[in-house]
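Quick board copy: two proteins, each given as sequence then tokens.
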Amino acid sequence: MRKKTLSAAVLCAATVLSVAGLSATPAVAAGPAPKPKADFNGDGYADLAVGVPGATVGGKAKAGYVNVVWGGKKGLGGHGSTTVSQGAAGVPGTVEKDDGFGTAVSTGDMNGDGRTDIVVGTPGEDNSAGASAGTLTVLWGAKSGIKGGFTAANGAYAGNQIGGLVTTGDYDGDGDRDIALSTRNDERAAMETRPGPFKAGSPATLQRVDSWHFSGPRAVTSGDFDADGRDDLAVTYGGTEIAGTAVYGTKSGAWKAAWRAGDTATALATGDFDGDGTADLALGEVRPNPEAEEGDEGFCAERLGGAIATVYGKSGTTLGGAVSCTTQDTDRVDGNAEADDNFGAALAVGDLDREDGDELIAGASAESVGIDKDAGAYWILESTGTGKELYGSGLNQTSPGVPGTSEAGDRFGAAIAVDDYNGDTYPDSAVAAPGENASSGGVWYGTPKDRPSPQVSVTPAKLGLAGARAYGAVLGQ
């Protein structure tokens, strides 16, 4: 990853610390410490759920499991981990070849007991309805760790493939957490919801949000974009005949699109990037609808190597603010845009410095580092105000304090999560390199507030995991 020279003015303006060259100026006092987003055992430290759908379990290839890396004072990697498969006590299902348990992972307190639970999508699950009908499982958080699970929904026919994408939120405003999930049906794909509560006897009926012919959802995220107290669902979709991005809500009582754009993307993330109190939406590796009229360049006219469109919120609207576009050729962004970098193909959000709004952490797993193709990198980006381009610094495995060595095929930055894993009240980053160590994989845990303190690599070998493949490619958020 080549570096542009950063001016003194940029360095003085920076509020995110980075070993890649940005320094911080003491500015505003830090805001309130955020609560952990994912605390499965209720000890006050955030934990990380890693889906490993390609893992071999009991000799069954690609049966899959979820590995929970426990947080604590030492952060990730210092407190061990727990592996949960369909062969674990109390977890529904049976370990079978090609199930892909852990293909999608999302987190939330699904039963209201104060501990975070894990929602797991297994689209390759076979059941009595047919092959690859799919299943949706909730793994219960407990003081002792993960304690059993609950079948939230099963696919209704062969090829239904439910749960390839999952996210959670309270979409109907009844106080129960709900699950949004992808499904398939011959030439169609859809987003549906499985409303809470999640307990024995609760109806597992799915509710349709939207569906697409010869197209389907690519990424989803939840957020309250219209500030009505209910979570909304953002979906980006694409295929041979239709593509776009939409935000759906239930303010009218039924699912309805409150905002649409012709652009599609690879990743979505929501946060308040300009600090104005409204939810914004980031579209990673954004591109226009292939059926758009000639001359319609969509949100980003320049997209070489990948672009991030930031759609800002505006009070009283759903994403009614300005739109900015950020690439590696944007001023004050490290690197240079090159074909097929996939800049923004992975996104996560956190207020890393607890000042002036959220930061966007963006991965580019196909970024070349020197002569090493697909070595990968990630960036910490922030906004200077509504409608403004993001700016920030990039890191890879050649950066000071980042363990390991950039190698071809590592795909560092392929998945990203953010939470306070060491309990210091500042969010930390967890950045995956699923191609590391001959595709065994790994996750790099860092403390952006304290840079240039060294990061720590968490790998299957260090955790004593068997059968892992592409560890880190799926991170729960």
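And the next:
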Amino acid sequence: MTANLLPCHIHHNGSIDPVSAYWKPTDSTDNSKEAYFRGRKLKGKPLPLPQGYRGLIVERNPDKLKKETLLSSDDQDTNDDEVVPMETVGTMRVTGEFDEMVIWSHESMAAAAADPYVRSVEEWLKVSDKIHGFEDETNDKTK
């Protein structure tokens, strides 16, 4: 599956069928993708995820209120100092996975130096490698 990052905001969060009526990207000769969305030409830069990584599409579940009370040692009535205020607890649920992203731009392909999304994906992959990688005695980098 491929995730598409479009240079627009769509005010709809449900499903639409059939998607093929609105979205028909094609491959170009310069290792990019091309599509038209609502009459505007878009060029896309494919960014495959490195081996060992997977992309997740998550959706936020509705917040729930959580209330905790501290128990006193002699089980007396609790006073206001022992009640922790209610806080919202949100969770995320996985709704899909992808192994490639396409970063779309108007008229021209997104460049790593200029596009904040391309740059941030590449930077986060480097940070992840540093966090999850280690060097063994032979100075070979291993995950």
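Board note added afterward: The chain has a mean pLDDT of 77.
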